[in-house]
Amino acid sequence: MFVNYIGPALTLLGAALAAILPGMGSAVAVGRVGEAAAGVVTEDPDKFGKLLILQALPGTQGIYGLLSWFLIMNFSGMLGGNIDLSWQQGALYFLASLPITVVGYGSAVKQGRVSEAGCALVAKRPEHQVKAIIMAAMVETYAILALLATVLGTMAVPTS
Amino acid sequence: MKKIEVAALAKDRDRILSTLTREGTVEIVPVHKEEATASPEDQKRLRETIQLRSRLADALKEMDRRFPPENKSLFTLREKISEDDFKQASVESEALEQSLNAWEDALSAEHELKNQIANRRDQQSILEVWSDVPIDLSVTETEKTFVIYGISNDPQLFAELKTQLADEAPETALLSLKEIGKQKLLAVLTRKTDAARVRSRLTGADIHPLPLVGQEGTPAEVYARLESEITGLEANLAENRHTQKTLSEKRASFQVLYDALGEEEAKLTAAAKLGQTDRTIYFSGWIPERRAERTKKKLLETADAAVSLRDPLEGEEFPILLVNNKFNQAFEVILTLFGAPTNDESDPMPAMAPFYMLIFGMMLSDVGYGLLLTLGTAYLIYGMKVEGSVRAMSKMLMLSGVASIVWGFMFGGFFGDLVSVLSNNRVHFPALWFDPMDAPMNLLVFSMIFGIVHLFVGMGMKILNAKRFGNLWDGLFETVPWYLIITGILVLLGGSAGLVEGDLAGVLSNVGKWMMIVGAALVIIGRIRSTSNPFKGFFSGILGLYDITSWLSDILSYSRILALVLATSVIAVVFNSIAGMMLGLPTPLNYVVFAIIAIPTHLLNLALSSLSAYVHASRLQYIEMFGKFFDGGGRYYQPLRRDTKYINVLNAPEGELGDAE
C-alpha cells in the first residue's frame, strides 16, 4: 500500500536532506577556502599546513549532516531494514532533521567566508593563525547547537 | 622581572652585545622614543649584512630546489654545532662569500648556456624544411640583385603574386626550390632597384623572408654545425651542473653563516636602541629575576661596565614571561597564541591547564584515538626531537591525548565500537560510566555542570586578580552574587526535577529560591556601593541582573562537548560499520580488506576530531572562561638572543630559561 510508505519516505527524506544540504554547504565553503589558500601557497608554499587547517574548518557541517543521517536512520530502525513506520513518526523524524539541514547549510557557507578571510590573515601574519581559526569556529557554534537540536529531537521520537 | 641598567665604554659595545646575545636574557628597552637612528657606519654594516644574508637565503633555497637534501623530513630539525664552530663561520665569511659569488656566477652562466642552446634549436627548427636544398642560404645578394628566401603556404596567393610581379617588376624570378604539399620553398631573385616593392608584395602574399642564420654553407651543413655547437654547449652545461653540485656541498657552511649573520643583524639592530656618546654607551632592559645575577657577572667579565639591577617601579610596564611547572607549561601554548596577561594580573595557566586537558579529552574521548595521539606526539618530542612551535603543540596534544584515553574508558570508546564489530557483537568495550549514545541527556547535563565549574573557577581568578589590584571588595561583589544565583538555580532545579524525594525536595527549592534572591540583592547592593548616586546604582543593579542572559549563553555553549563526543564516536561507528560489511566476505582475506578500509578512515576521523577538539576546547577557554576574568593586553618578553634557523648552537644557555618561546 502506498500509505504504508509515507512514514519511511518522510524519514528517509529528512535523513537525506540532513546529509545533502550541510554537505553541499561544506563543499561550497571548503572549495572557496581552498581557492584562497591555493593563492597564498603560490607565494609561500611553507604556509600549506596552516592553511589546510583553515580549509578543514567549514568541513565539519558535512560531518554533522552525515552524523544526523546516521542517527535518524539508526533510531528509526531503517538502517536495520525496518520500514514499519507510521506517517506520524515519519513526519516527526523529518521535523527533527530540520535544524541541522537548514543551519548546517547556512553556517557552512558563512564559516567558509570567515576562513577565506582568515587565509588572507595567515598570508600576512602567519603567527596569528589561531585567531583566524577561532573566528571561524565562532560560526560553527550555531551548527553545533543545531546538531544538538536534531540529535535530541530524533531521540525524542517515539519508536513503537 | 628586574630592570638592568648598564653603562660602559663605547669601544666595548660589540663585545657587550655579543655577551647579551649569547646569554639571551635581556630585552633591551630603546633609549630613544622615536625610531632610533644608527650611526652611518652601523647602517652600512647592517645594510651589508642584510644584503649578504638575503643572497645566502636565495642561494640556499636554490640549492634545496636543485639538490634536495637526502633526509628531508616534514619537520625542520636544526643541526647542532658547537660555539666554536659557530664563531668560525664569521672568520671564514670571506672565503664563503667567494663561494657564494661562484655559485651565483654558475647560476647566471647556466642561464646564458641555456639561452644559447635554445637560440640554436630555434635556428635548427627554421632550417629543418630546407635541409635537402643544396644552396648556401647565406648568399643573399650579388652586385645588382637580392636573393630572398621564403616559404609560400597558399597557392592562390602565390598565383596572384606571380601576376603582380610580372606586371610591376618583370625582371624578378620566382624559383621554386622544393614543394611539400601546398608549401613551396622559394628563392626570389630581384633587382636591387625593385627590392622594396618586391618585398612588400611578398609580405602581402604572406611570404616572409627567412631570418638570416648568419652561417655559410648549405642548410644541411649549417644544421650539422649547429648540432655540434649544441653538443659543446651541453657539455658545458653538464660541467656547470657539476660545479653547482660541488658548490652545493658548502650548504652547511652557508647555513651556519646565514645564522651567524642573523645574529650580527640582531646585534646591529639592538645597537640602535642604545644610548651612545663618543666614548660611552648606556642601555637598560628587562631581565628575569633568576637570571639577573648570572648575566650581570658575565657582563662584568666581558668589559669594564657599571651594571645595576632594580625592581620595576610602581606603574612601570614590563614584559611578561610565564613561569610554570612542567604540566602547566605544556598548555602555555594555548595562552601565548591568545595573548599575554597584563603586568598586574595573575598567571591564568594553573586554572586553565587542567580544564583544557579535561575538555579536550572529553571532546575526543576515545581510548584508541587518545593512544594514537599520545604515541604520535611522544614520538615527535622524544624520537625526532622536534623544536619550536611543533614541540610546544606536541606537548600539549600528548597530555590531552592522555585525557582522551581516560575519558574514552569512561564513555566506552575504542575506535568507536571496533571491539563489538570485530567480535561480531560477542564482546563490547565497557563504558566505566555511561555510553553517551545511549544517554545523551546525561552527558548534556554533565557538560553544562562541568561548564559551570569551569566558569566558577574563572570567577575565582577574578577575585584573585581583584585582590592583586587592591580592590578585593569590588571583585567579591562582582562574583559572589553570581555564585549564589547560579548555584541557587541549580538547587532549585534539582529540587523540582524529582532527584530527591519527600520533604527534602521542598527544602531544596526553598534554599535555591533564597540563594537567588540574596544573590540578586547583592548584585544591586554592589552597584549601589560602586556609584556615588544610590538611585543610579539601584537601577544599574537592576540592569545588571540581565547578565543572567550572558550566563545562560555561556553555559549553553558547553553543550558543544556533547556534540563533539557524538561526532567523534558516531563517525567512528559509521566507518566501522562500512568496514564491518567486509567481514562478511567469503574469503580469508576479509580481515585484510577490513583493515584497508578501517585504518585510513579512522586516521581521517582522528585528524578531524582532534582539530575540532583543539579548536573548541580553545574557544571555551578564550571566550567563556577568559570572559569571566582575563583582561590581557600585556606583551611577551622577547630578549635579545640567538634566533637561528638552521643550526642549534650547543653550550648556549638559552635552553635553561625553560621552553618559553
Radius of gyration of chain B: 40 Å
Shape of chain B: extended
**What amount of the residues of chain A lies in strands?**
under 5%
Q: Any idea of the CATH topology of chain A?
A: Four Helix Bundle (Hemerythrin (Met), subunit A)
Q: What is the approximate shape of chain A? A: elongated
User: Which homologous superfamily in CATH is the superfamily of chain A?
Assistant: lithium bound rotor ring of v- atpase
Number of strands of chain B: 10
C-alpha termini separation of chain A: 20 Å
What is the class of chain A in the CATH system? Mainly Alpha
Average pLDDT reading of chain A: 91
Written account of the structure:
The complex is a heterodimer of chains A (160) and B (661). Chain A has helices spanning 6-43, 48-56, 60-75, 87-124, 129-156. With 160 residues, chain A is mostly helical. Chain A has a single domain, classed as Up-down Bundle (Four Helix Bundle (Hemerythrin (Met), subunit A)), CATH 1.20.120. In chain A, α1 (6-43) runs antiparallel to α3, α2 (48-56) runs antiparallel to α4 and α3 (60-75) runs parallel beside α5. Chain A is elongated. Chain A starts with 5 loop residues before the first helix and ends with a helix. In chain B, the strands form three sheets. In chain B, strands 1, 2, 7, 8 and 9 form a five-stranded antiparallel sheet that branches. Chain B has a three-stranded antiparallel sheet with strand order 4-6-5, covered by helices on one side. In chain B, α16 (440-469) packs parallel to α22 (590-629). The relative contact order of chain B is 0.13. Chain B has helices at residues 13-23, 40-66, 83-91, 93-127, 155-168, 195-204, 219-248, 251-271, 289-302, 326-330, 332-338, 349-364, 367-383, 388-411, 418-422, 440-469, 472-496, 503-530, 534-544, 547-557, 560-581, 590-629; strands spanning 2-9, 27-29, 79-81, 145-152, 173-180, 183-191, 275-276, 280-287, 305-310, 647-649. Among the domains of chain B are: 126-228, Alpha-Beta Plaits (2-Layer Sandwich), CATH 3.30.70.2750; 326-629, no CATH class. The model of chain B is unreliable at 652-661 (pLDDT under 50). Chain B is of the alpha+beta class and 661 residues long. Chain B contains 22 helices and ten strands. At the A-B interface, α3 and α5 of A face α16, α21 and α22 of B.
